[in-house]
Design brief:
Blueprint lengths: L1 H11 L6 H10 L2 H15 L4 E6 L1 E4 L27 H13 L4 E5 L8 H14 L4 E4 L2 H11 L3 H11 L3 E2 L9 H6 L8 H13 L3 E8 L5 H18 L2 E8 L14 H14 L12 H7 L6 E5 L5 H4 L8 H10 L3 E5 L5 E3 L37 H10 L4
Parallel strand pairs: 1-8, 1-9, 2-3, 3-4, 5-6, 6-7
Antiparallel strand pairs: 9-10
Helix pairs in contact: 1-2, 2-10, 3-11, 5-7, 6-9, 9-10, 12-14
This protein binds iron/sulfur cluster.
């Protein structure tokens, strides 16, 4: 315990912990001590006791994916009758609903669909910006960018530049899982993007002036050492570029997945949250929580952000978990924990007080879905783009006016 106390004293003084010190804390420090250390950092950095959140909408433009990560319950293989691609009009409708609820951004991510070329993304982004010039597109995690480089045979920098020119505002940190290739091979996500590729996309994005978030999905096959390796790699890139705005972590949701297993417990969640706050000393700290009650507790373990007012969610729901927290519910949890809730944008700039205190907004007591069950409609604009898979080629040919 002597050594733990010495490391704790270093953290209290604002010192940076190294790999071995972080591991010792993570494995040996009592949970309450980890919490106090993380809360101390939160209090030093955010003494005003403000806790932020964003109103945005998590939209998954397609569930068709060739990557087949074995922890994913969301994707459908090419040709599946349950596969979908959202039409531009459907996405516009989702934006209208988001604006009505006070939101100004879409978090837009999807499967690696071989039948959506780079031009489809560019056209979508341009169409969104033409209709909603001030609306922000926080879109396409690094593995999606890698997928587009392979489809288009262009380099990372060029793909990012084309997407940015079309309207991309920032890049979400999804698809990081654990940034260690041993883990990625077991999860069958090494091929979608290696740890190095994920970091390289972020490096290019930061150099191009885009801000991004960083994430971690833990609690599957990784060791504590590998969790720390992940955090240290993020810290290293942040030292280099300063381009991450926040770190968001969540635990693996096992239901309906090929990998199976168990979900991390609440204590594991809080310990991981706290060690991330301690290790990531160069990163604005923000965590998506797992429901209101753990969310409230996380505010005592280093978190200063409640993530997003969930309007729509499809990925975690497919794995058996679904938390619906509208703005009223988030604000109730934040205030009850003794903090001041403020709305923010993706850059973590404060936008104001809760919107429902300024004007009437509809309550969201149920999460929206990408597509209603049984809706097998196909967007009319798909015929304008070349398909790669045989199944989709046939379909598009039959949809042509003379098909
Ligand atoms: S996690 Fe993403 S890339 Fe992996 S199978 Fe699911 S949708 Fe595809």
């Amino acid at each position: 315990m002597q050594a733990i106390e010495q490391i704790a004293a270093k953290v209290r003084e604002g010192g940076r912990v190294g790999r071995d010190q972080a591991l010792a804390l993570y494995l040996q420090a009592p949970t309450t001590l980890l919490g106090r250390l993380a809360d101390g950092i939160r209090a030093r950095r955010h003494p005003e006791r403000v806790v932020t959140y964003i109103i945005d909408r998590n939209v998954n433009y397609t569930n068709v994916c060739v990557a087949r990560c074995n922890f994913c319950a969301f994707y459908r293989p090419v040709g599946s009758p349950e596969g979908y691609v959202l039409g531009f009009d459907e996405i516009f409708r989702k934006i209208d609903e988001t604006i009505e609820l006070g939101g100004g951004q879409l978090l837009l991510q999807g499967g690696h669909n071989p039948d959506l070329p780079l031009e489809w993304y560019e056209d979508l982004f341009r169409a969104v910006k033409a209709r909603y010039p001030a609306f922000r597109l926080h879109a396409l995690s690094p593995p999606e960018v890698i997928h587009l480089t392979r489809m288009s045979r262009l380099g990372i920098a060029e793909v990012i530049e084309r997407l940015r020119a079309a309207g991309l505002d920032s890049i979400p940190g999804g698809g990081a899982e654990i940034l260690v290739d041993r883990v990625r091979r077991i999860l069958n996500c090494y091929n979608k993007a290696t740890a190095g590729e994920w970091l390289e996309v972020m490096r290019h994005a930061h150099r191009a002036g885009l801000r991004t978030t960083a994430t971690m999905m833990y609690g599957h096959v990784e060791t504590p050492e590998e969790r720390l390796e992940h955090l240290l790699r993020l810290r290293g890139l942040q030292d280099e570029t300063g381009g991450f705005t926040a770190f968001i972590s969540w635990s693996y949701q096992p239901e309906h997945t090929e990998l199976g297993g168990f979900e991390a417990t609440g204590v594991e969640y809080l310990r991981t949250l706290a060690i991330a706050r301690i290790v990531l000393d160069n990163l604005q700290a923000s965590w998506v929580t797992q429901g209101g009650k753990v969310g409230q507790l996380s505010l005592a373990y280093g978190a200063n952000d409640m993530g997003s007012v969930m309007i729509e969610e499809n990925v975690v729901r497919a794995a058996g978990a679904s938390y619906c927290m509208d703005e009223i519910e988030i604000v109730r949890n934040v205030e009850n924990a003794g903090f001041v809730p403020k709305r923010r944008n993706m850059h973590y700039e404060i936008l104001g007080d809760p919107i429902f205190r300024e004007r009437e907004v509809p309550r969201m007591l149920e999460l929206a879905v990408a597509r209603h069950e049984g809706d097998a409609s196909r967007p009319a604009e798909l015929v304008n783009y070349p398909a790669r898979s045989a199944a989709e080629k046939r379909l598009r040919r039959s949809e042509l006016p003379d098909g």
